[in-house]
Amino acid sequence: MTSQKDGSLSPHNRLMTGAEIFVRSLVEEGVDIVFGYPGGAVIGIYDALHDISDIKHILTRHEQGAVHAAEGYAKASGKPGVALVTSGPGATNTVTGIADAYMDSIPIVVFTGQVALKLIGNDAFQEADIVGITRPITKHNYLVRDVNELAATIKEAFYVATTGRPGPVLVDLPKDVMASKTHFDYPKKIQMRSYNPHTQGNKKQIEKAAELINKSKRPVLYVGGGTILSNASEELKALARKARIPVTTTLHGLGSYPESDELAMGMLGMHGTWYSNTAVNYCDLLIAVGARFDDRVTGNVDAFAAEAKKIHIDIDPTAISKNVKVDVPIVGDVKHVLRDLLPLVQTLETKDWLQTIRQWKEEHPLRYRNGKHIRMQYVIQRIGEMTNGNAVIVSDVGQHQMWTAQFFKYIHPRTHITSGGLGTMGFSLPAAMGASFARKDIPVISLSGDGGIQMNIQEFATCVEYKIPIKIFIMNNSYLGMVRQWQELFWRRRYSQVKISSPDFVKLAEAYGCAGFRATQTDEVDDVLAKAFAINDGPAVVEFKVVKEDNVYPMIPAGMTWKELMDVPEEELKGVEGEAPEVEELVILEKG
Amino acid sequence: MGELTALPAPDGRDRKHTISLLVENKFGAFNRIAGLFAAKGYNIDSLTVGPTEDDEISRMTIVTRGDDSVIEQIMKQLNKLINTVKVADLTYESFVERDLALIKVQTKPDTRSEIMQIAEIFRAKIVDISPRTVTVEAVGSEQKVDAIIKMLKPFGIKELARTGRVALKREFQGEVN
User: Fold this and answer.
1) Nearest Cα residue in chain B from A165
2) Are strands A515-519 and A540-545 parallel, antiparallel or unpaired?
3) Among A200, A589, A223, A150, which residue's Cα sits nearest to residue A408?
4) CATH fold label, A203-362
């Protein structure tokens, strides 16, 4: 007979502390990596973690880094990312990462320590009402008030984070709850009377959508991150190719459809390609797939695809008719809906439409003038060419992010990771760290500007400590480039607080104990890239001293329409006077 | 199931809507709903919450206003909250609604009987009395409660407490009294 009280006889009946239950629950969930940072309120948890070999813990140098790493891991792997931090400042430092994951629908579970239950509300040391603080930026959050609820809460947290429209879930763990004991019994099934996301689309709606598609002469597929979240790239390809429909993607949709394909039109929106923006505005049917009609895509909503009928497939009912009224809304998981839609769709007569788009691609390609001084576009294009699309590109926020979206040819899903919705500077380095634990088979590349890299530069140490073999590419133009671009174009060139200085990144890399390289001219780019790619036993930092004042084109100014699209200026196409012609060339990049 | 009253065509005009929702009695559930209205900038005219026949569930009745697209978003957003079990917009259905008010009215010896008469007309009760005040308990539709308050105002209302609207869908639809 096993004793219920002392519990020492059978592992199944042994009483366990909350901390032990926590660790065992993570193992049950199949969690093999946790990004975190210990502190007073979570010492017990870290003690329990110490004995578990199934879970690798990565000690980041800041809690924000831990959450971004969990995001990067989740985006690259498709599995939930996990972060563990202490109470108070540890918890509040996760806020930006959580908000980022909420905006971009990234499944992460953040565990925060909390002061003991009886101290909650007393302004205790390192107390913060993190459940209150994160309520509007989590899909859901929990305060565990009884150790008997702990296992079920953890199960529920992972379920909520990963199902429906994914998102961050926070679980707050008071210190005394984690020290009290109970029997561990991890629930096999989950039952929530109030949460039941449905994945199947309505049959009648799908039929209506098929009817619209079959009647369409100039259809466009407008594909967002939902397609990648639901692992529906194959279904998307099947639909586009069967029906002969051109595909444009949002920033988060990049990788869902191979950009080497002739139906691909690259990115849509403010810095999207000329032809995809034009095609959307001449199309007679817009099929939005896991996209949310974000303002950076639509510009002036009233003029966005104004003439077109619209089909909108999304798992989140609130995303539908939020910004744009659509003709056929379909609530459901993209993968399921596309599967159901495919047999109903015919091969369309879109030859003329595709020919028109092909002509637009020739007339208004993505392009830049290459010269002696390094253009970011060139660096990104070369990374793309050297890796052949077989790399995970993790960009930060700003000009380089948009060029990364434009000048790298994405072939595979989950190879483009960026902070899209929240636009979090400092995202790239820690997110790339996380991604590298999910993808050991291909290079993981962090791309940042000189501003963004300095926001989480402390994570150099983490990369070195764990020999994380990411490439850390820094595009240094000595400016906060995107803000400078807006000041140049819309604020009469009044460059207020956008000039930014940086440390010597090569020396800094060396001080942290990793390899550092620098390129200051275009002809050095290939060499430093090759050197960086040759390092596989740790991080490699490369600083590119790039052209200081350069603008991202095409650009549709905020709130405007495709008619106001600003393409690469004439003088750039003609060339800059004074530059030796032998080092100059107009580079044209084709998508599709 | 009763018949559904035909929805008027969307006209982009603001209307008052009575939304009834069932919410799990979980930590922070109320805050989540109040927070949603604040974060999205939706109006709340009144919000009531109380227990139901199921002790794991509370019923909230929210009176809000907005055009059809705003109301549609409110309904969807409420539904999206993990603790929400059910959301219903009662506005275009037949429903029973009640509002309760406690109205403390100043009295003088010569006005007391008039106040009591008014209370009687509205089938309100006198629930407290003192030399200078009477407290009237009025129950009914929002308009009825508004009306009695209006009638009592000239005497001087010292204090007023109202519950806000609680509502339930009528079982038998199509007959409104």
Assistant:
1) B80
2) parallel
3) A589
4) Rossmann fold (3.40.50)
- Which residue of B22, B26, B74, B80 is the best one to mutate when testing the A interface, meaning the one whose CB has the most A CBs within 10 A? B80
> pLDDT digit of tens for each residue in chain A (592 aa)?
344 444 444 555 689 999 999 999 999 999 999 999 999 999 999 999 998 999 999 999 999 999 999 999 999 999 999 999 999 999 999 999 999 999 999 999 999 999 999 999 999 999 999 999 999 999 999 999 999 999 999 999 999 999 999 999 999 999 999 999 999 999 999 989 889 888 999 999 999 999 999 999 999 999 999 999 999 999 999 999 999 999 999 999 999 999 999 999 999 999 999 999 999 999 999 999 999 999 999 999 999 999 999 999 999 999 988 888 999 999 999 999 999 999 999 999 999 999 999 999 999 999 999 999 999 999 999 999 999 999 999 999 999 999 999 999 999 999 999 999 999 999 999 999 999 999 999 999 999 999 999 999 999 999 999 999 999 999 999 999 999 999 999 999 999 999 999 999 999 999 999 999 999 999 999 999 999 999 999 999 999 999 999 999 999 999 999 889 999 998 888 765 555 555 577 888 877 6
Domain A15-183: CATH architecture, name and number where available: 3-Layer(aba) Sandwich (3.40)
Any A CB within 8 A of B79 CB: yes
Q: Which of B76, B79, B86 to mutate to test the interface with A (most CBs of A within 10 A)?
A: B76
Tell me if A462 sits within 8 A of A60, measured CB to CB.
yes
Find all residues with CB under 8 Å of B31, minimum gap 6, and list them: A132, A135
User: According to CATH, what is the number of the domain A365-553?
Assistant: 3.40.50.970
Q: Contacts of residue B83 in chain A, CB cutoff 8 Å? A: 194
Q: Is residue B136 part of a domain?
A: yes
For residues A360 and A282, what is the distance between their CA atoms, to the nearest angstrom? 12
Q: Which of B68, B86, B70 is nearest to B78 (CA)?
A: B86
Domain-terminating residue out of B58, B78, B93? B93
Nearest CA in chain B to A322: B73
Hey, is the C-beta of B84 within 8 angstroms of any chain A C-beta?
yes
Query: Mutating which of A194, A302, A320 best tests the B interface, going by the most B Cβ atoms within 10 A?
Result: A194
Number of CB pairs, chain A paired with chain B, less than 8 A apart:
42
Which of A96, A99, A103, A107 shows the shortest CA–CA distance to A71? Answer: A107
Provide the ipTM: 0.84
Q: Are the Cβ atoms of B39 and A136 closer than 8 angstroms?
A: yes
Cβ–Cβ of B73/A193 closer than 8 Å? no
CB contact under 8 A, B82 and A317: no
Q: Identify the domain boundary among B93, B126, B150.
A: B93
Mention every residue, 6+ apart, whose C-beta is less than 8 A from residue A322: A292, A293, B73
Residue A135 has its nearest CB partner, among B35, B69, B72, at: B35
Q: Which residues pair with A515 in a beta bridge?
A: A540
- Can A15-183 and A203-362 be said to share one CATH topology? yes
The residue of chain B nearest to residue A143, with distances taken between CA atoms, is: B27
Residue B123 sits in the same domain as residue B85: no
Residues of A in contact with B76 (CB under 8 A): 317-318
Kindly give the pairing relationship between strand A392-395 and strand A540-545: unpaired
Range of the domain at B103: 96-169
Distance from CA of A201 to the nearest CA of B (A): 17
Same-domain status, B80 and B120: no
Residues of A classed as catalytic: 63, 125-126, 175, 482
Query: Which helix (H) or strand (E) element contains residue B48?
Result: strand B46-51
- Tell me, yes or no, whether B21 and B89 share the same domain: yes
| Every domain of chain A and the residues it spans | 15-183, 203-362, 365-553
Same-domain check for residues B19 and B88:
yes
Number of domains in chain B: 2
